[in-house]
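Page 47, continued from p. 46.
Same chain as before, 149 aa.
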Amino acid sequence: MKTARHDMILDIIEKEAIETQDDLAESLRKKNFKVTQATVSRDIKELRLIKVLTEDGRYRYAVADKASSGLIDRFIKMFSQSVLSIEYNEYMIVIKTLSGSANVAAEAIDALKWSEVLGTLAGDNTIFVTCKKSSDVPDVARKFNEMIW
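Result:
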């Protein structure tokens, strides 16, 4: 029953602009699923649904993977507005940001899912980026620089 309900939730949010848990519960009830608000809340958490901003300025539920393409543009904008400098050596890229902005900029890097990037580590105003191969470091640093110009 839970799997069928989860499948139906994914179908509903794909086809309808579901803004609230109540909207989702009502749509499920119309499709003969007996649910409570608590059940819908757990389902949202288990399916890792997030609310995304639509073009008309409203929020709706979406699957995180499908929402990420719209978020990437926002992350890149936040990255470009917060980065102060980018330097690298043969092993690592060090990105300096405005105070308190490193986590957002690192999230932008992670959201890009570049295959060359092994991982990021963010403090308050500094991000360390490690590439899978040292030969990738200059190219990745160049791509970061292109994002801020």
